[in-house]
Records
---
Amino acid sequence: MRLLVIDCATEACSVALFDGGLLIGGTFAMLGRGHAERLIPMIEALPGHGRSRRIAVDAGPGSFTGIRVGLAAARALALAWDAAVEGYSSLALVAAMARAQHPGQAIDAVMTGGHGEWFFQAFDADGAALAPSASCSPEAAAAMSRAPVVAGSQAAALAALRGGGVEPLPLWPDARALGALPAAALLPDPIAAYGRAPDAQVPRTSASCNQ
């Protein structure tokens, strides 16, 4: 069975098509902006225009606009194709990509958040999350980080805050790497996980996290 993967929750935008677990097509681009304009042409360029019976989409945390674009596209295509939609976490995929390079290692995933914060989540050597994802100040993320490998768009910055003995892997979620993600990380009926509470709230201290 074919599986279409859509990932546009971060600055990157990527799509991939798997058939029987094998990657048969995919594209990755660092866009920053303009995901809505580029996503559908990227899907149409896949073999068979990406048509599949299963669709997996990055549900965040990440960009409000990018997450909405990805979920809307996945749901619209699922309706047209009578396909099932599943979701996964951007941080879980980044951690899985890093674990593929460092088998048997615990991974801390850290991505750019909003308003100067970072999205942070720790994973054990088997890919299981040790705690829910959090939107934190850089200092709070550094205080929580313990893994020998840190991965994500803010990996180098987190490694610098922690000091020596940490290997940074600058990575962004890539739909073509979905095969590295544990099957249990794909969940039905995805709900957007923006990673931050609404901005209209009581201010928190600089070392706090939103979970």
Note: The mean pLDDT is 92.
---
Amino acid sequence: MAHEVSIRPITEGDIEGFRAAVDLVARERRYLSRMAGPSPDGAAHFVRSNIAHGHPQFVAICDDTLIGWCDIVRSDGDYESHVGSMGMGLLPAWRGQGHGGQLLLATLARARQIGLSRIELEVHASNARAISLYRRLDFIEEGRKRRARYIDERFEDIILMARLDEPHTP
């Protein structure tokens, strides 16, 4: 029997699940810019700040377990209020099943509702699955940071991608 996955905005009750999910993905040492997840206080601050500022942050939940997240944080620059920076991840057992696309679409829809028309992200060049998803959802490659990360005695390029939507006033 297939388990039902729901996609919904994050709540304060999700903080520990979010922290644990980021930690698990970070410890894979393949997808994120850190080797471990945030501290409990760091995760709580990030989630509470996103909620307080209305930054889109959605989670995928299955059987009361947080299995993935996607967030877009608005830039605080005076001339960049239309720009958001995206981050996301899924637990390994849940990849390749469409949940990442669902998370990203929900988060992008909310970002558009609040007036974000440029969404930026960085992705490891070796992460072909994520790059394919981003391209399917109209992200384009804008550049590459060569040898930007050094992980387990190897360099990793970072691809800079962005999605541009028509401006929309909330």
Note: Residues 147 and 157 are 5 Å apart (CA to CA).
---
Amino acid sequence: MAIRFPLCWPGAGMTVSRAKLRDLEPVADLPPPEALKTITPLRLDERSAELANQVVVDAELVDTIETIFAGSGFVKDRDKVRMLVNVRAEINSKWKDTRDAYLAIGRSLLALDTKFSREESEMLRANMDQVFPFSDSVGSQLRACARAVDSGRLPFESCPSSYATAYQIAMLSDAQLEIAKQKGLIRINVTRSEIVSFRKELKSGSAPVNEGETKAKRALLLRKQKRLEFNLKQVLDEIARLDAE
């Protein structure tokens, strides 16, 4: 349940105990809990009357702050607490913007694939980093992420902010994805190491081979081969031109 976390401590040098925080009455006009997962970012130089007295946080954040700074005088300093909460909100907002950005890039690349012929797509991928600020390998991962989200295999609200993590999820088979959901691994704050460890556990337990991943790796190697062949042809053509002069 969301509560209002007073930033004007009751008395100099006094801390607000967890019990007192829990005893605070819920505020009836607060938005639903899902709307409080990310606090609206506020500029640190803004000092409205309401912000000067309180900010909206959830109980989990209260516990986190208490745990991290246990034994220190941090929670006594309302300005530091307010700054931490505001910076957290701003970073959360920017971090989610990152997810929107890489999904948009992935969708744009998929759109190119539908417009270009297969040969044209292969030629572009062979020279991806000459056109875009990332390699073909990264482009393939971005496509896979966008495809997984748009197909519904990876719910948008659970899609991690890191494309590398989202890609690890996208490469799971349907059966493996279901197991991951049961284990609570399909969530926005899951880490890449958690998914990698999960995939290793599946392999050690003789889990079904992810044919999609195998095909993706093979396709990537073939594209690398074509890129090398393309570059070699350019070198040979240049040598032939020089010899003809």
Note: The chain is about 60% helix and 5% strand.
